[in-house]
Amino acid sequence: MSRVIQVVDSPARAAAVIRMTVPQREMPSVMKPAIDEILAVLKAQGVKPAGPLFNHYLSMDSGLFDFETGFPIDAPIEPSGRVRPGELPAAKVARTVHFGPYENLHHAWGVFTALVRSEGLTPAGGLWECYQEGPESGPDPSNWRTELNLPIEG
User: Fold this and answer.
1) What residue stretches are annotated with the AraC effector-binding domain (predicted)?
2) Mind listing the domains of the chain with CATH numbers?
3) Which of 11, 41, 58, 59 has the greatest count of CB atoms below 10 A from its CB?
C-alpha cells in the first residue's frame, strides 16, 4: 500500500449499483455475477461506465458486509433486475492506493485507517474502494491497484 495519504473533496457521482448484504467470505462468489449483471443492464440501456468498478461499504458489522457494487455513470438508468440508480456520496475523504491482490485489502484498510488516525483525522463512517487495475489488466496481482477512500470529519 502507498503510505501517501491525500485529503480531497470527492464529488457525488451517479452510479448504477446492486446492493447486497453478505458474509465477508462470500464476497468472491457474489462479485462476478453482480458485475456481469450491471454491465448487461448498462449495455441494454446504451450507457457506458464512466469510471472503474467500486464497492461502497455501508456497514461491515460482525463480518456481514452491507454494500453497493457498481460503476459511475454519466447518464441516467432505469432500474432493471437488481440494478438500481445510486451514487457515491460527496465527501471529504482520506485517499490512498493499495497495490496488490484483493485478498490483502482487509489488512491494507487496517493500516490505512491507523495512518489516517495518526494524522489526527477522524473517520466519518462508510468507505469505498475503486478497482483501478485488476485481473482484467493482467495475471500478476502485484500490478493491481485499488483506490481506498475513507470519509473523514471536517
Assistant:
1) 3-153
2) 6-151 (3.20.80.10)
3) 41
